[in-house]
Amino acid sequence: MADDVLFEFLHMEMVSHIYKEQASRGEMDKDRATCVSALEGMGFRVGQGLIERFTKDSPSFKDDLDIMKFICKDFWINVFRKQIDNLRTNHQGTYVLQDNKFSLLTQLSSGKQYLEEAPKYLAYSCGLVRGALSNLGMDCVVTAEVSPMPSCKFQVVIQKI
Amino acid sequence: MYASTQFFWRFTESSLDFMNSELFTLTYGALVTQLCKDYENDEEVNKQLDKILFAHALPVFPLGYNIGVRLIEDFLARSSVGRCQDFRETADVIAKVAFKMYLGITPSVTNWSPAGDEFSLILESNPLVDFVELPDNHSTLVYSNLLCGVLRGALEMVQMAVDVKFAQDSLRGDNVTEIRMKFIKRIEENLPAGDE
């Protein structure tokens, strides 16, 4: 049973490593996008795995809203140690999940400082959510925005086929 | 247009612990996979996970080491261990307090060298390798090498230079996982810690 802090340290190191790696390879122009997508991709695979393990004994969900509620409650508690503070939806496939004290940002700042660095630390989590939803049958795009830290909003847009 | 909803929830203690440990394990797996993609060979990946100094010092990015230098502060703040008198005490604290606190396992301390400067930690199980199998083309990968870096970084912050490596690895066919730790010297001056 691994302690929570281990994941936080590992996550910090991962972000730092990916960015340093890109910097050392000297490809400064496309580096931002590549770093973010590498982190997001890692989160995606982990999210898929986690949700599989967590829901293998639970009954299936009634509808999309039910799935989103599950993400906001059980999933968020298990991964980020608290639940989502606020969920909004337009009932047409867009959901906004608001976390007022996102655990991966609390150590960074509690205001406007380092705002431009925040996306690096959110990429992995966006991937986690996207991966989890993907394995629950919801294909979507997940983005995040912060202001001010440590509060952030994850926007989930379901992709119509 | 937009509706706002608030929730109450209930969950069981055991399901909370269950998922948390898997988050770390799975994240570590994703990281190692990414490193294997980024670097051509396992040697390079092993280096990245730990950090090894070479005379011609290629820039390496010491993942385990960096985590270790921070983890020690968290450890000292949360446990109430005082300064260790000798290496034997250090070994006990590592096995019985630190490993228990962070990974939920208690390795045994054995195979002390006659001089008392080297010992082994035997891990019956390794949480990092739950769900992991090494594919054939990665047989030299020391998957859990992060642990070596963490131990070295942490001990360096308490003035001990040690050498840490895997002597046996259950992932590569051995019965147990054995980490060999060797005391090199006490770090006297206040060296600036961190990357080159």
TrEMBL record, chain A:
GO cellular component: cis-Golgi network; endoplasmic reticulum; trans-Golgi network; TRAPP complex
TM stretches of this protein: none
Entry keyword Endoplasmic reticulum: yes
Gene Ontology biological process terms in this record: endoplasmic reticulum to Golgi vesicle-mediated transport; nervous system development
Source organism superkingdom: Eukaryota
Primary localization class, coarse: endoplasmic reticulum
InterPro entries: NO_sig/Golgi_transp_ligand-bd, TRAPP_component, TRAPPC6/Trs33
UniProt-listed Pfam families: TRAPP
Entry keywords, A to Z: Endoplasmic reticulum, Golgi apparatus, Neurogenesis
Cell compartment(s), UniProt: Endoplasmic reticulum; Golgi apparatus, cis-Golgi network
Protein family according to the UniProt entry: Belongs to the TRAPP small subunits family. BET3 subfamily.
Record's function text: Component of a transport protein particle (TRAPP) complex that may function in specific stages of inter-organelle traffic. Specifically involved in the early development of neural circuitry, likely by controlling the frequency and amplitude of intracellular calcium transients implicated in the regulation of neuron differentiation and survival.
Protein name (database record): Trafficking protein particle complex subunit 6B
Taxonomic path: Eukaryota, Metazoa, Chordata, Craniata, Vertebrata
Gene that encodes the chain: TPC6B
Automatic annotation (TrEMBL), chain B:
BP terms from Gene Ontology: Golgi vesicle transport
Gene3D superfamilies (UniProt xref): Trafficking protein particle complex subunit 3 (3.30.1380.20)
Cellular compartment(s): Endoplasmic reticulum; Golgi apparatus, cis-Golgi network
CDD domains in UniProt: TRAPPC3_bet3
Pfam families on file: TRAPP
Coiled-coil segments on the chain, per record: none
Cellular component aspect of the GO annotation: endoplasmic reticulum; Golgi apparatus; TRAPP complex
Keywords from the UniProt entry: Endoplasmic reticulum, ER-Golgi transport, Golgi apparatus, Lipoprotein, Palmitate, Transport
Signal peptide: none
Family membership noted in the UniProt record: Belongs to the TRAPP small subunits family. BET3 subfamily.
Subunit relationships: Homodimer.
Described function: May play a role in vesicular transport from endoplasmic reticulum to Golgi.
The protein's name: Trafficking protein particle complex subunit
